[in-house]
Amino acid sequence: MGNVLYLECSSGISGDMTVAALLDLGADETVLKRTLSSLPIEEFQTKITRVKKSGLDVCDFDVILDKTHENHDHDMEYLHGNDRENDGHTQEHRNHPIKHEHRGLSEIMQILKKTEMTEGARKIAATVFEILAEAEANVHGVKKEHVHFHEVGAVDSIVDIAAAAVCIDNLDIEEVIIPDLTEGQGTIRCQHGIIPVPVPAVVQIAQMHGLTLNVTQTKGELVTPTGAAIAAAIRTSEKLPKQFKIKKTGMGAGKRTYDRPGILRAMLIERQEMTAEQDEILKLETNIDDCTGEALGYVMERLFEEGARDVSYMPLYMKKNRPAYQLNVICAEEDVRRMERIIFENTTTIGIRRIKMERTILQREIRTISTPYGEANVKICQKESGQMIYPEYESAAQLSRRSGKPYPEIYQMIAEQAKKEQERQG
Fold it and tell me: How far apart are CA 43 and CA 186, in angstroms?
């Protein structure tokens, strides 16, 4: 099972901050150097150093370009500054030059294809570039394929993205939790002139991928397009577990200092086992008295397909003695808008009630076991009195049809077989 990564973006996020935090967390520098040395792009150097931020010892990852290929995009030009507190040893890397000035998405993908990296790292890097290209295309009103990558394909951004992908893959990260991205406000000057903060590309990425921005009173750009794209590409959840242990911590330095230290903190965490867990869930409900049964059945299917936890109909009588149905949908808060859109577009209702509810859920897992009639899935729930085993309906029904045995007999057989396997495993 892979690791769970929590990124605390209380000072924003950028590409170099991400790489530095992951290196500090334990990503293999040798593997990273080998990958960067194989990048078929213009001449650059990388430095890995220890610096001080508000008295804290943190890792810094820096991409240094030759004069010919200095980047002038706001993503790095604005972010990079001379207000750096640097001490400790420095590790440098220089690659072999192949001159290019502007790149399209296809050329970026060719660069990744020629780079010596794992397929996992290559997939992450490609996803980040796809997200950046789509955002820039929307901002500038062009097709994704026509985006000029002097904006997102500058050398330092390519190096940052490739390095971040390699580090994520090297740390065997399976899940990434990013609750929100702290951002500043105001305006900055970039290649296109003066633009607002959050910058348009960051706004597009947050909008398209559901990233939560926490805009503060800080004057300046805390979240860069590269940082936002990395977050969007790797995030699997925005909710921290109620209880967890911290296995390891890494801190990556930013290049600017505002009213807060420019630090990205990365943690490898481990969930604490609990027999029951409390969380919040939303219930959507609406009364419908003029919709066909076919439409209601279709709506239920669509809601389940889009991630509803549960959907049910309850018959009732409404005003004027009209028979009707109350639709109830249980879903996560981040899915509410999608659920409501499905209901509004496919039923005749003109209003939906929202109820935020707390719930207690038992710890559970799905396991596959072997039986004389084939494999079956069982749900194992942990109660204070011990474990309970529940065969999954679809598995029991399939084995019943295949064997010709009655469903209750197959259900009992699966439960007994699962119990025996549990006892053998101790």
Answer: 34
Q: How far is residue 405 CA from its own chain's centroid? A: 45
For the 364-424 domain, the top CATH level (class) is alpha beta
Residue 96, pLDDT score: 45
**Residue type for position 368:** T
Note if the bond before 323 is cis, omega within 30 degrees.
no
Could you tell me the mean pLDDT of each successive run of 10 residues in the chain, 426 residues long?
90 96 97 95 88 94 74 40 41 46 80 95 96 90 74 76 97 95 91 87 95 94 95 92 90 89 95 68 95 94 94 93 95 93 95 93 86 91 85 93 94 92 77
Q: 216 and 237 in contact (C-beta within 8 Å)?
A: no
Query: Which CA distances in Å does 388 have to 380, 392, 423?
Result: 6, 13, 13
Do 60 and 254 contact (CB within 8 A), yes or no?
no
Instruction: Give the pLDDT score at 152.
Output: 47
Q: Which residues pair with 91 in a beta bridge?
A: 48
List all residues 6 or more positions away from 412 whose beta carbon is below 8 Å from its beta carbon: none
What is the DSSP track for 155-224? HHHHHHHHHHHHHHHHTTEEEEE---EEEEEEEEEETTEEEEES-HHHHHHHHHHTPPEEEEEEES--B-
pTM of the model: 0.64
Confidence at residue 155, expressed as pLDDT on a 0 to 100 scale:
85
Query: How far, in Å, CA of 21 to CA of 189, rounded?
Result: 27
CATH class of 277-351: alpha beta
Distance in angstroms (rounded) separating the CA atoms of residues 159 and 13: 16
- Provide CB contacts within 8 A for 123, sequence distance 6+: none
DSSP per position, 359-412: EEEEEEEEEEEEETTEEEEEEEEEETTEEEEEE-HHHHHHHHHHH---HHHHHH
Q: What is the pLDDT of residue 99?
A: 45
* Degrees, nearest 5: CA angle 295-298-301: 155
> How many residues make up the chain in this entry?
426
Taking the domains of the chain in order of start, what are their residue ranges?
Answer: 3-271, 277-351, 364-424
CA 145 to chain centre: 24
Q: Which pair of structure tokens corresponds to residue 129?
A: 């570039």
> Residue 423: CB partners within 8 Å, gap ≥ 6?
none
β-bridge pairing 181-190 and 353-371: unpaired
Q: Tell me the C-alpha distance between 180 and 206, whole Å.
A: 10
Compute how many other C-beta atoms are within 10 angstroms of the C-beta atom of residue 137: 18
